[in-house]
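Student: I would love a firmer grasp of how sequence relates to backbone shape in proteins. Thank you; the sequence and its tokens follow:
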Amino acid sequence: MRLFVCLLILALSCRLIAGPTPPELERALKDFRAEGPKGWAFTQTTNSADRSRVERFDPLGKHSLQWKLLLENGRAPTAEDTQKYNEIKTRRSSNENAPNVKDQIAPGTCEIIQETPERGVYRFDLKPGADDDHSAKFMRVTFTLHRPTATIEKVELASTGEFSPVLMVKVAEARTVMTYSLPDGDRPSFLNEVTVRIRGKAMLFRSLDQDMTVAYSDYTYAGKK
């Protein structure tokens, strides 16, 4: 019992020292784009337990023409695969980008997890990104800042415990990690990899478990200097 009380006091104390965003992190987040810099073409490779896909993105294309399917489950796509793929991209082309998690930071909730001369690690509560966002209050976001280059090197979005975002859905664990390269000469920081882990159930029996990795490579500048 005494140990539990001590741990509870420690947890509450940590929450009490939460405060404003450090200026150097605020500056780094100002121009941070979760998807990486504009004007660059890249290859996107997605792998999960039941499928794999390789795509190429060209920012000079228009809407669905920006994306090209290269491989589907390890083989060249059939005409039917390509048609379905293009139809999906066309339907999604008019959608707005998903809210950037940096815009969901709840003011005054910054916790300093670690600070060294090389890196700072900072964790925040989230506010809803939309009216139908019922998950934000169960999630926290952690940014890793590479201090010498003022670069966001890692973003981790993780649940704080089991929650129910909608009726009949129970999420036991949700975690997304995005890692970024450091700038090198005239090359900016790029999105390197996204990993997603979900554990949960829907309707009490249907598994929502998923592990997925999305890797980004072959960056080529296609925009205007």
User: Anything to note?
Assistant: Residues 1-16 have pLDDT under 50 and may be disordered. The chain has one domain: 22-221. The first helix runs from residue 2 to 16. The CA atoms of residues 171 and 200 lie 4 Å apart.
